[in-house]
Amino acid sequence: MFELPDLPFSYNALEPYIDAKTMEIHHDKHHAGYVKKLNAALEALEIDKDINKLLKNIDSIPEEKRQAIINNGGGHANHSLFWQILKKDVEISGKIKEAIDRDFGSFEDFKKKFSDAAVSRFGSGWAWLVVNKGKLEITSTANQDNPISEGKTPILCLDVWEHAYYLKYQNKRPDYSEAFFNVINWPEVEKNFEALL
Q1: What is the CATH number of domain 20-84?
Q2: Which one of 8, 88, 168, 178 is at 20 to 30 Å from 41 when CA atoms are compared?
Q3: Per CATH, the architecture of 94-194 is what?
């Protein structure tokens, strides 16, 4: 049985960039819903219940359960990473900064490419910073799809479903994407990165 992880901060910890009411609904309703539906989809299956292994080996899931696992397992995995990489007013430094400069030219170039991935995602989905064969890449996925299913390892993500920003930003996804750069927990992103070195 999967469980809803606690938020590692209070609902209002990311104000004014992400409002408390959005955080409360996002975590307590949306993420909780994914966990509940994921557990229901897995109920009768005798398989390894490690979320990353499930998503990495999605073709091994019986076809009639596969989409439910992609949707709800992805929703659980994506949000679990998202909560961990949020913290207000943290400067980037260290190996992750060096890798971003190496693979994107500069932090400003990275920021522009990441924002483009978030803003240009049609409909609901996610923007990702992933490690693929030792290099950093930016990608985006639809719905609750996760780059793990493509053999890539996510270390940073931005939820661009409307429920993640609509109360504060309405239809201004570019403003939300810009605000996100004030709430990235860079030491956590670096930890995710270093675990793959």
Answers
A1: 1.10.287.990
A2: 8
A3: 3-Layer(bab) Sandwich (3.55)
